[in-house]
Amino acid sequence: MDDPLTIAEQWSEAGHQVALATVVDTWGSAPRPTGSHLVIDEGGRFEGSVSGGCVEGAVVAEAMDVIETGKPQMLEFGVADETAWEVGLSCGGTIRVYVEKVT
Amino acid sequence: MDLALLKELNAERAARRAAILVTDPDSGAQRLVREADDLSGDPLAETLRSRFRSGKSGRIELDDGSSAILTVSVPSARIVVIGAVHISQALAPMATLAGFDVTVIDPRTAFATPERFAGVTLHAEWPQDVLPGIALDPYTAVAALTHDPKIDDPALTEALASGCFYVGALGSRKTHGKRRERLAALGVPEAALDRIAAPIGLAIGAASPAEIAVAVLAQIIETLRIRPAETRTSEAA
């Protein structure tokens, strides 16, 4: 299986609009280490992971904005979030995810 | 990220060279730093050097209150197995599952057959002929499992000279004593000989070939995860 960075290049070369999400900070028990990637295209297709599946949906949604505006975003997820029930990390950790567009 | 920069990063990764992508999260500006680059004028030099050793990615706070994201890419760990033997038949699929790239080398064509090693890079050649082309590096483990000095010794010599993060050899203490004498006679330094894990594998009382494979794989993972920085630093010095 190809890794997310290779897939990001392939999708981009194939003419897709692509966003790359990267775990840049973790506190407490986090399922994926810093440097983990999720790659997303304009159709919502994604590969890789930034958590154990808890917040990928939210990252994909944010990635749509990033693809549209071209502006990078810093996202934070944790159980202390107001949205914890929807996209919180059940493991109790907090993560920060940087989402950028491949241009 | 600029597609051209992403391609550069992917090219470094494909060539098994370490690289760090430095991102300013506020402006989105990015640059790629290679391990071979001259870092002397780089304000982040010290941090970058330490990250090349640890392989750890993440965001760092800078003195001026801003931050930088370091996406560190070091080559994926690889296991080169010397000997297409029974233990290797168990070790190869286990190591592949655990995420290692696996290469098996054995000049004995009766052992090194694709039927016995499906899905693994296999070389039915002498280690001394194959290894120069494989370019052993500090992200590679070498496990010598043939029990035959003609095949194991040249591979061990090459692995120790290349700074492989793990070098292990099958054989009893007595066998290993004789091996040390042979390699020392070839000029391998004492400190390098001390790096050979022998008898190979964690002491879990492994009995069958598959159990020995578990012991070997566990020892390789232990070395990779617990002592990586030390190994690479001492080799670089």
Briefly characterize the structure:
Chain A has 103 residues and is of the alpha+beta class. Chain A has one domain (4-102).
The overall number of domains of chain B is 2
**CATH C-level label of the largest domain in chain B:** Alpha Beta
Largest β sheet strand count, sense and barrel closure of chain B: 6 strands, parallel
Q: Topology as H/E string of chain B?
A: HEEHEEEHEEHEHEHHEHH
* Head-to-tail CA distance between termini of chain B: 35 Å
Which word captures the global form of chain B?
elongated
User: What's the oligomerization state?
Assistant: heterodimer
The total number of structural domains of chain A is 1
Task: Write down the overall geometry of chain A.
Answer: globular
CATH architecture identity of the largest domain in chain B: 3-Layer(aba) Sandwich
Helix content of chain B: 40-55%
CATH topology of the largest domain in chain B, anyone? Rossmann fold
Average pLDDT of chain B, to the nearest integer? 92
Helical fraction of chain A equals 25-40%
Mean pLDDT across every amino acid position of chain A:
87
The radius of gyration of chain A is 13 Å
Q: Most extensive interface: pair and counts?
A: A-B, 24 and 19 residues
> For the CA atoms, what is the radius of gyration of chain B?
20 Å
The secondary-structure element order of chain A is HEEEHEHE
Number of helices of chain B: 9
Task: Name its key features.
heterodimer; A: 103 residues; alpha+beta; 3 helices; 32% strand; globular; B: 237 residues; alpha/beta; Rossmann fold; 2 domains; six-stranded parallel β-sheet; four-stranded antiparallel β-sheet; 42% helix
